[in-house]
Amino acid sequence: MKTIVYASTGPSNVLSLVERGVAQPGPGEVRVKVVVSGVNPTDWKARAGGGAGGSLDFDEVVPNQDGAGVVDAIGEGVHGLAVGDRVWLYLAAHQRPTGTAQEFTVLPVDRVVRLPEGVGFDVAASLGVPAMTAHRALTVHEHGPARLSPGALTGRTILVHGGAGAVGHAAIQLAVWAGATVITSVSSDEKETLARAAGAHHVVCYPDASLAERIQELAPHGVDHIVEVSPTQNAALDVEVIANHGSIAYYANNNGDAFSVPIIPSFAKNVRWQGLLLYTVGPDALRAAAEDVTAALVDGALPVGEPAGLPITWFPLEQTAAAHDAVEGGAVGKVLIRVADDEA
């Protein structure tokens, strides 16, 4: 089978297209014929590692955590999935060398989720890291909810920073599906159009010295949840606009690796600062996210493509390095790799 691999960390030219045998699934594992592989910032960062020539935990690694395809074989003890099921995948390469940039991948069954009927592989491969991160960000408030469903966030106001990014896009969609009023911040008119297409009720643009005032006009009692991509840049703003007992969930380090918080205003509002990383969030949170994201799919709440606010840039498997470069370069929307023709 055609497989993209790297044997040491470094720039995208460490990736190569090779032929490898098709592995058999072991107990508790599922083999999936990959149709689409999704690329996220975490994928190029893992590949870059500590720099050129860095060592790996495996002889070689297949990149990319997310993807979608069709169950091709199941191992002993697997229940709930069958050969021929259309599925979406998450954390495919976490503590394993079995990412989705290959024609077949073998994964633990708990990282393979059946797709609802009618959901395309483009949508399915765009879930994983972005949608599950967004789910966690929306479910860490002191007063809940711990799960998302229609009405779960009714009466809440959510501020999503970076609403044109993949996580921001998913956060807007999930929050709207759950009944929240959504404000999002973006950096350009083009991205404002995308955020509105995703379903945001209000969009504010930065840089703007009056940004806090604009948000406070939209949410005079404060925002209940903040989905934060750049705490270095936004910490003081977040504390200014957050409601009492509000939560600020941060999942990235855009614009800096450290941030400071206004102490008295922060504790006076009982603010909860919640870091989150899917790799360490734990199985219960992952399971809840996979179930709720799938329920949102059933309701048609997570479309992709430019009309839905998330433009897609496609690459063939042999151009995986270019796909990684596109994500590293800040491509707007979602970067996907077409591994096989959509035959199902």
UniProtKB/TrEMBL annotation:
SMART domains: PKS_ER. Its EC number is 1.6.5.5. InterPro entries: ADH-like_C, ADH-like_N, ER, GroES-like_sf, NAD(P)-bd_dom_sf, Zinc-ADH_QOR/CCCR. It comes from the Bacteria. Keywords: NADP, Oxidoreductase. Residues 10-337 form the Enoyl reductase (ER) domain. Pfam families: ADH_N (PF08240), ADH_zinc_N (PF00107). Coiled coil: none annotated. It is an enzyme of class 1 (oxidoreductase). One of its GO terms (molecular function) is quinone reductase (NADPH) activity. The keyword rRNA-binding does not apply. PANTHER family: QUINONE OXIDOREDUCTASE (PTHR44154). This is NADPH2:quinone reductase. It comes from Pseudoclavibacter helvolus.
